[in-house]
UniProtKB/TrEMBL annotation:
Domain of life per record: Bacteria
The protein's name in its UniProt record: OsmC family protein
Pfam families, sorted: OsmC (PF02566)
Length: 131
């Protein structure tokens, strides 16, 4: 499944309009980096992709199993180490509901099966062209 996202950045420093189909978000850089902090920065968007995909994947599974879970909370911290070309995602998942140890173990496996998690843990290739 291919996804197409378009980003458009004018002369306003780092204020970027990003569209995917009919949906739009704004990204920006923090004030200390010259932006206006009017939207998520690109690293936050990357962490958001993992957090939101994890939550949705878990919700789909929990609903299919009809387990009693009111809320799924996913917090992702992303640390980037450019000098070593390493990034670390720390994902903390909690649930408001009734789950036993066996269910939690299964949900850990399901969290790792989220499509964004799979992409981030596979080989990644970026092909760039100018047009």
């Amino acid at each position: 499944m291919a996804v197409t996202v378009k980003a458009s950045l004018g002369k306003t420093k780092y204020y970027t309009e990003v569209t995917a189909g009919e949906n739009q978000i704004i990204t920006d850089e923090p004030i200390d980096k010259g932006g206006q902090n009017k939207g998520f920065n690109p690293m936050e968007i990357l962490a958001t992709s993992l957090a939101s995909c994890t939550a949705a994947t878990l919700r789909m599974y929990i609903e299919r199993k009809e387990w009693d879970v009111e809320n799924i909370n996913v917090e992702v911290e992303l640390e980037n180490f450019p000098l070593t070309k390493r990034a670390i995602f720390k994902r903390d998942i909690s649930f408001e509901g009734i789950l036993d140890d066996e269910q939690l173990k299964r949900l850990h496996t399901i969290a790792d099966a989220c499509p964004v998690h799979k992409i981030l843990t596979n080989d990644i290739e970026i092909l760039t062209k100018f047009s």
